[in-house]
Design brief:
Elements: H1 2-25, E1 28-32, H2 54-64, E2 71-77, E3 92-98, H3 100-106, H4 112-116
Antiparallel strand pairs: 1-3, 2-3
């Protein structure tokens, strides 16, 4: 009977490690450079958030679209000079990782629909 318990515990441990690796292997990277101020998160209701930093506005926008698990969400800034019109690129660069299912959702949402083709 003890041998069966030990075998069951080893099997569960082995399968749980394998499952964790499979989930980690499914993460896909997303990188994008938003415009100065013409993105959907640059409008209400996102601009009226208590902390309306661009990072929080993007996260709130994605959450509203059903994408809540952003891994390694990062913002970097380049030193390039861009025009100041809303449609011009900003010097912000964002990157994060999402699951395969969230990646598919992103492909149906602007501006990611254009970026992730």
């Amino acid at each position: 009977m003890n041998i069966l318990k030990i075998l069951a515990i080893c099997t569960i441990g082995f399968l749980s490690c394998e499952s964790e690796d499979a989930v980690n292997g499914e993460l896909l990277s997303v990188s994008f450079k938003p415009t100065q101020c013409s993105e959907l998160w640059d409008k209400e209701p996102y601009t009226s958030l208590a902390d309306n930093s661009r990072e929080n506005r993007i996260k709130a926008f994605l959450k509203d679209k059903g994408i809540t698990n952003l891994i390694d969400f990062k913002k970097t800034t380049d030193s390039n000079i861009y025009c100041q019109a809303c449609e011009c690129p900003s010097n912000d660069n964002f990157s994060f990782k999402v699951s395969q299912s969230d990646y598919e959702k992103l492909k149906a949402i602007e501006p990611f629909k254009t970026i992730l083709k």
